[in-house]
Hints:
The chain has one domain (2-420): CATH 1.10.630.10.
Amino acid sequence: xWSRWLALHGIPRAFLAVTxxxxxxxxxxxxxxxxxxxxxxFMEEIRARGPLLHKxxxxxxxxxxxxxxxxxxxxxxxxxxxxxxxxxxxxxxIARTDPGLANPVEPPAxxxxxxxxxxxYRQSVSQSFTPRAIDRLGTRxxxxxxxxxxxxxxxxxxxxxxxxxxxxxxxIIAEILDLPADxxxxxxxxxxxxxxxxxxxxxWRTYRDAIDGLRGADRTLQERFHRARAGEASDNPFTRLxxxxxxxxxxxxxxxxxxxxxxxxxxxxxxxxxIVLLLQHPDQLARLRxxxxxxxxxVEEILRIDSPVQMTARTPSCDVDVAGQHIAxxxxxxLFLGGANRxxxxxxxxxxxxxxxxxxxxxxAFGSGVHACLGAxxxxxxxxxxxxxxxxxxPDLHLTAAPHxxxxxxxxxxxxxxxxxxxxxxxPA
Length: 429
Ligand code: HEM
């Protein structure tokens, strides 16, 4: 495992540190593990150097138009993190040391697979996200939120991340994957351990803990798959997917692990970032109290100004000219969605939090193109339901300590939000 870490993270980590010191803003941003409090100054530095910045390591962009066009351009495919412009000997080490676990950021998880396999995985998993399925999940979101609010009211020292923001998406993912209630603690653990895998150059211990977490997830998901194959009856679309021979065991477990990572570790940050932004802007919160119809747009603005997923990457299969630059086949292009969502050419005064912003929904927080977020509709429902219920139930809510970030680069959120809730207000049914 150590040699795999060295090839995937250890050597890139040393390289990033050197290039960051030499003044490369992209390397500076990626090398801020554990200190990722404010990525935006790095992104503004990238913006100041033009729509596409080229360094030895990769291209990078925070330009909204360039990010959107690349995400929608079929000449650009996924960037496989196990290939990532690494020299051949390192790629050989990575190939030899594959532990074969359900890893949400390595193939065959659909987010790192190109068509035609991508199309097959996405169509299969989409059965859990049809409008009818989303309607049913929406009802569950309301029920689970109400239970969590009741539990919060009884807690003496609630942490709004652990006791609220993390619990809702976790229960909903368990529902989608047809996992029993006693798996909830494991889901939290896997999500937490696995999320640093979206960063580049993570420390050895973090990597080791992430892989240990994946081992647990892999075991449970394999069992799930084989029980369904053995004929376990269920009307859950995800279980039926295992039963009907559409996917192999590895395809099934990798895409289930992706749903855990993509559905849980992102939505917890949407809710947590929203709580902090609204507490920092009491005028906007007051407006939401008077005009609750503004909640959906407020959630779009939260997604825009503090995007839970800060970046993705793409690699062209042929030479491509973009924004006056020539990108060679096989190059890596880092797309900083968090920066694109603050592009002043698209969003006036982009650093201002404004829940009435008319084009807030033009953000790229859910990506775009063939890999656009499969759970966007669900995430929006979760964000609106959770934030509205929390602030309506506890109008005097305030934090009892300064919030601190999780210290990840790609997934942007808070580690804990200790709070005092104040008196609970009865919310009319
Ligand atoms: C605020 C919450 C969320 C955010 C910000 C978010 C963001 C994203 C982004 C940016 C991508 C595209 C990645 C890329 O192009 O490389 C993506 C893909 C994906 N998301 Fe989400 N996501 C959220 C919630 C969810 C939820 C709730 C689910 C499911 C339960 C989900 C499932 C997926 C899946 C399966 C993909 C891969 C789609 C594909 O490759 O075709 N996401 N998400």
